Amino acid sequence: MQPKPNTTCFQCGIPIYRDKYQIKRGRNICSKQCEISMRRNRVDVACSGCGAALSLSPFYLERYKHHFCSQKCHGKWRSENQRTDANPVWKGRKEPVLIPCANCGQEIRRPRFAIEQSSRSFCSRACQAALYAGERHPNWIGGSTKYYGANWREQRNLARRRDGYRCQCCGKTQKQNGRQLDVHHIKPFHVFGYVGGENTTYLDANHLSNLISLCRNCHLRVERGNRYVQRRLV
Q1: Which residue segment(s) compose the domain that 162 sits in?
Q2: Could you tell me if residue 64 is inside a domain?
Q3: Alpha helices of the chain — where are they, by DSSP H?
Q4: Strand 7-8 and strand 15-16: pairing?
Q5: Is the alpha carbon torsion for 224, 225, 226, 229 positive or negative?
Q6: Which of 38, 49, 134, 222 has the lowest CB atom count within 10 Å?
Q7: Whether 122 and 52 share a structural domain
Q8: In DSSP terms, which residues pair with 16 in a beta bridge?
Q9: Is residue 91 part of a domain?
Q10: Within-domain flag for 101
Q11: Based on the domain organization, do 81 and 102 belong to the same domain?
């Protein structure tokens, strides 16, 4: 049983049935002959952007109000004629405003709707990270930040060299790990109570006997308590 006609052929006008998707794409043509006839019947129009001559089918002339010879002309025309309220898909977005960065105070431009969604705006990710570092972060529960003292980089390299650039749990090499091996504090760094500018307990925390080289997977297991590592004798 054929469905009832729900549209008409664009070329000859006889009633036909087409799916919603076909109608949306302009495929309301009853036959191949009508499609060929529609494509052959061209109308001369001018490009809405630069005024160049175009030859288009009546279907496109009826479906679209403006016609362009290239994407460049289309983009230029839209930038001149469809800004803000003139844009057909404009949804009332407001013009950007100048506000100070929440960390450094530098003036930045942000859309008003973005300001309404967030109470603070930043000029860069670095400023955002600086504002929420350490105790100023809302999820701070104590402990240390990722700064492990002045000698951390040197001690980390020495630990990898001492361990032969192999994971001390599974034996995976640095090449098999796909990156440099992680260096784990056997006794957690925050236990030593290091405070920058007040003490030098990072020297004990970063001692080679408290460091061990691990691959990424083993390091995750150790941090989660699924694997145990012992303090080493240097």
Answers
A1: 152-223
A2: yes
A3: 20-24, 32-40, 58-63, 71-81, 112-117, 125-131, 152-162, 174-177, 202-205, 216-223
A4: antiparallel
A5: positive
A6: 134
A7: no
A8: 7
A9: no
A10: yes
A11: no
Amino acid at 17: Y
Q: Would you give the DSSP letter of residue 16? A: E
DSSP codes joined into one string, 27-70? ---SSHHHHHHHHH--EEEE-TTT--EEEE-HHHHHH-S---SS
Structure tokens at 221: 């297991």
Each residue of 6-39: pLDDT tens digit? 788 777 778 887 777 776 666 677 887 777 776 6
Q: What is the dihedral of CA 149, 153, 158, 159, to 10 degrees?
A: 70
Residues 161-171: tens digit of each pLDDT: 999 999 998 88
160 half-sphere exposure, CB direction, 13 A CA radius? 16
Task: Establish how many alpha carbons lie within 13 A of residue 8's alpha carbon, considering only the half-sphere containing its beta carbon.
Answer: 5
Distance from C-alpha of 223 to C-alpha of 183, rounded to nearest angstrom: 12
Residue 108, in any domain of the structure: yes
Strand partners, 46: 53
